[in-house]
Amino acid sequence: MTTYPRRTLLLTLSAVAVAGTLAAVSPPARAQAPGTTGPALAWGPCAEPGLAGQECAELPVPLDYRDPDGPQLTLAVSRVRSDRPGARRGTLLMIPGGPGEPGVPRLVAKGPALGKEMAGAYDLVTFDPRGTGGSSTASCALDPDDRHLVTLRSWPGPDGGITENIARSRRIAEACHRHGGAVLRSMSTANEVRDIDRLRRALGEEKLSAWGSSYGTYVGAVYAQKYPQHTDRWVLDSNGDPDPSRVERGWLANMAAGADDRFPDFAAWAADPAREDEGLRLAEHPQDVRPLFLALAARLDRAPKESDTKGVPLTGSLLRQALQNALYSDGLFPPLARLVRQAQDPAARPVLPDALAGPLPDANAAAVMATICNDVRWPASVPGYRRAVAADRARHPLTAGMPANVVPCAFWKDAPADRPVRITAEGPSNILLVQNRRDPATPYSGALKMRQALGGRARLVTLGHGGHGAYLGNGNACGNRLVTAFLTTGRRPQRDTYCADGAGAAAVPGPSAPGGPA
Questions:
Q1: Is the pLDDT higher at 7 or at 85?
Q2: Which residue stretches of 203-304 are H helix?
C-alpha cells in the first residue's frame, strides 16, 4: 500500500570519506546468456507521452505458473536505452512500490535524474505489475464510497469504534471474491517475483541490477532470495520488516510509529517564523503543533466541515489521512498547513487534496487490496481488532488506531497460494539498503529488521532525513553519491554508513555489533 516498525538513535558523526570495497558482482550482463530463453519483447513507441527515447512493449506471463502454457496475462513494460553503448553494462530494473503502484509512471518521473546518475551504464527498465497501470487488471466492482482512500484505510469512528470498519471490510472481501476472478487471485508477491524473472529472460539478461522502492524492496528481497544467481547490483530503498509472519500486516501496523517519528519535522517547519509571511505558521513553538493538530482532528470528528468537494466533508479521519500523505515529503507540508488553516477558519471552505477528494478507480482499489490479502492469512478475530485499536489509539494518537484496525484481508475468501519467503543471509553480498531515518511509511526499525535478515549480503546507508523514498528523493548528496557509486562502479561502503543532511558520511556499527542498532 502506498502510501503506502524501539529505535536506537544513530548519532551524527563527523563527516569522513567513506572507503569502498568492490561488491561481489558479476561482469556486465550479456544478451542471450545461458538461462535467458523466453518470450521476445516487441519494442515500439509508447501510447502515452513520456521520455525522449522511451520505448514500450507487452510481456505475456502465465496467469498461473503451475500451468505455464495456460491462460496468459500481459504486463506493460517500458525502457530507456543507454545512450552510451560502450559504457553499458546491463539492465537496471526499477521495481515499483505499493502494492498496487505501476512502474511506468515512475520511470517517467525518475528516469531523467536516474539516467544522469547512471551515465549510460544501464538500460533503464520498469513494468506495471499485474493488476496495475497498462497491465492486465481486475475489478472488485466496489461502490464508490468504498473506494475512497480514507475508507480503504480503516480509520475507526470518532469514539474508536470499528463496527463500520468491520461491515465495510466484509463487504469489500465479498465483492472481490465475487467479481475479482482468477486475475485478482493471481496478484501476489510470489507471482510478481516470477514475472520479474520472466522479464529478465525476455530481456536476454543473465543478471539484473535493480532499484526497488518501498514495497518494491520486499519484492526485490524475495527475488534475491529465490534467484540469487540472477542478481547483479541490488538497491533496496525504504525497507519494511521482512518477517514472514508479519509481512503486510506488520507494515501497516508500523506506520503508527512512523508517523510519530516523522511528525516533529512537520512541527518544526510549521512553527518556523519563515512561515509567517506565507500565512502557514501554525504555532510559535514546535511542541505546540501536535496538540493543535490533535484538537482540530477531534473537533472535526464531532463536527465535520463542508469542503470544496460536494459530498466529501473534511472529517477528523480525512485530516489524519491528509497528514499521513503529507509526511511522505517536505514538499507536501505547505498544502497540509493550508488545509489546517482552512479547517480552523469558520469562513473558509477547505480545499481537499486531489488524492482525497474522490474515489480511486475500481481497478486501482482492487490492486491495493489484492496483494496484501493474497500473500498471507490475516487474523480474523473481531474482538482482537477491537483491543488492538484501543491500545494503538492510546499509544499513537496521530494515527488514531487505523494501522491496527481490521481490513478486508481478515475476511478474504481465498487462502494464499504460496507461503511467504524468509529472507536470509544466504547468497551473494551484492545488496545496498538505503533508508531515511524518519520514514512515515516504512519506519527505520523495519529497515533494521531487513538489514539483520540479510546479514553479510548487505550494507545499510542511513540518511539523517525524513520522508518516504531516499535515493534521488530528498537532496541528500551523501546518500545519492553512495548509491550511484555502487550501481555504476560496484563500490560499496565497507560498513553500515550514516549520512547527515550535509555531504558527509560516517561508518557506524552494524545491526549485530555491540552498541549498534537493534
A1: 85
A2: 215-226, 249-271, 289-302
Is 481 a residue whose pLDDT tops 70?
yes
Asked if residue 462 lies in contact with residue 474, where contact means CB atoms within 8 angstroms, the answer is no
Residue 33: the pLDDT is 54
The pTM for the full model equals 0.90
- Give pLDDT tens digits for 44-82: 999 988 888 999 999 999 999 999 999 999 999 999 999
Q: Which three cell numbers stand for residue 21?
A: 570495497
Cα separation of 298 and 286, whole Å? Answer: 20
Alpha-carbon distance of 235 to 188, in angstroms, equals 21
Judge whether residue 504 has pLDDT over 80: no
Contact criterion met (CB below 8 Å) for 351 and 308: yes
List pLDDT tens digits, range 445-461.
Answer: 999 999 999 999 999 99
pLDDT in tens, 211-263: 999 999 999 999 999 999 999 999 999 999 999 988 999 999 999 999 999 99
- Alpha-carbon span 179 to 141, nearest angstrom: 7
> φ and ψ at 210, to 5 degrees?
-150, 150
The sign of the CA dihedral 355, 358, 363, 369 is positive
Work out the number of other CB atoms within 10 angstroms of the CB of residue 103. Answer: 27
Q: How many CA atoms lie within 13 A of 517 on its CB side?
A: 26
Interatomic CA distance for residues 333 and 436, integer angstroms: 17
pLDDT for res 161: 98
Q: In which region does residue 311 sit, left (phi positive, over 0), alpha (psi from -120 to 50) or beta (all else)? A: left
**Residue 342 grid coordinates:** 482552512
| CA dihedral sign of residues 433, 438, 442, 443 | positive
Element (H, E) at 462: strand 458-466
Which three cell numbers mark 416?
494464499
Q: How far apart are CA 353 and CA 222, in angstroms?
A: 35
- What spatial distance separates the first Cα and last Cα of the chain, rounded to whole Å? 26
Q: How far is CA 36 from CA 16, 65, 126, 207, 225, in A?
A: 43, 17, 18, 9, 19
Q: How confident is the model at residue 509 (pLDDT cuts 50, 70, 90)?
A: low
Q: How far apart are CA 312 and CA 131, in angstroms?
A: 28
Q: Please provide the DSSP assignment of 287-352 as one string.
A: GGHHHHHHHHHHHHHHS-B--SSTT--B-HHHHHHHHHHHTT-GGGHHHHHHHHHHHH-TT-----
Question: Other C-beta atoms within 10 Å of 367: how many?
Answer: 28
Residues written for the chain: 518
Beta-bridge partner residues of 148: none
